[in-house]
C-alpha cells in the first residue's frame, strides 16, 4: 500500500507540473491597470481642434480591417477617443439621425446627449464593437421631439470609471430642419 501511495504522489506531481506549464504559456500579454484607456482624462475637444499629445501618434489611429484603401469613411469630427464619420458638424438633421464612428473607450461603453440649448432632446449609451485600447465601431440612432431653437449640440463622451462624470467629450454642432422647430 505504501508503494501505491508513492505512485499516486508522482502522478499528481506530474499532472500539476503539466497544468502549471500550460497556464504560464498563455500568460504572455502585458496587463493594463483597470480603468486605463491609454488616453488623457478630462479632455474636451470640438471638431477641428488638434493635439500634439502622445494619443495622436500615427500608430494610435484605428485600422479598418479588410481596408483596401478606397472605402475608408471620412472622419468629420474627432478627438483622442472618438472618430466620427457622420453627421458632419453643422449638418441639418431631421427628427432622427444616425451617428457612426469609432471609439476607444473603457469596456466599449460610450454615452451621448443631444440638446437644443433649452432642453435635453435625447440621451443614452451604446457599446462599440471593441473596448480600449482598441478602436471599436459604433452606430447610434438619435430620435427626438421638436426642438425650440434652430441649432443643437450632440455631445459624445465616456463616463468616468471613478465617478461617472463625462470625460473625453466631443461636441458636434448641428442644425435642425426648419419644419421641426416649435415656437416657444
TrEMBL record:
Residues 27-54 have a biased composition (Polar residues). Residues 83-165 form the Bacterial spore germination immunoglobulin-like domain. Residues 1-24 form the signal peptide. It comes from the Bacteria. The keyword Signal applies. Keywords: Signal. Residues 27-76 are annotated as: Disordered. This is Gmad2 immunoglobulin-like domain-containing protein. It comes from Paenibacillus solisilvae.
Amino acid at each position: 500500500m505504501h508503494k501505491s501511495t508513492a505512485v499516486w504522489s508522482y502522478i499528481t506531481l506530474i499532472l500539476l507540473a503539466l497544468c502549471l506549464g500550460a497556464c504560464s504559456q498563455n500568460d504572455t500579454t502585458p496587463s493594463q491597470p483597470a480603468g486605463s484607456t491609454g488616453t488623457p482624462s478630462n479632455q474636451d475637444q470640438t471638431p477641428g481642434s488638434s493635439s500634439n499629445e502622445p494619443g495622436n501618434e500615427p500608430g494610435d489611429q484605428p485600422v479598418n480591417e479588410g481596408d483596401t484603401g478606397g472605402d475608408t469613411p471620412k472622419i468629420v469630427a474627432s478627438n483622442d477617443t472618438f472618430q466620427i464619420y457622420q453627421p458632419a458638424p453643422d449638418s441639418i438633421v431631421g427628427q432622427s439621425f444616425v451617428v457612426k464612428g469609432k471609439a476607444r473607450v473603457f469596456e466599449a461603453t460610450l454615452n451621448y446627449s443631444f440638446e437644443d440649448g433649452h432642453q435635453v432632446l435625447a440621451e443614452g449609451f451604446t457599446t462599440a464593437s471593441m473596448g480600449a485600447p482598441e478602436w471599436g465601431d459604433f452606430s447610434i440612432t438619435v430620435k427626438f421631439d421638436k426642438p425650440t431653437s434652430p441649432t443643437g449640440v450632440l455631445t459624445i463622451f465616456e463616463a468616468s470609471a471613478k465617478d461617472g462624470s463625462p470625460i473625453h467629450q466631443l461636441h458636434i454642432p448641428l442644425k435642425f430642419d426648419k419644419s421641426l422647430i416649435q415656437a416657444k
